[in-house]
Amino acid sequence: MNRKPHVAVVGATGAVGLEMIKTLERRSFRAATLTLLASVRSVGKKLKFHGDELAIKVLGRDSFQGIDIALFSAGGSI
Question: What is the value of pTM for the model shown?
Answer without folding.
Answer: 0.88
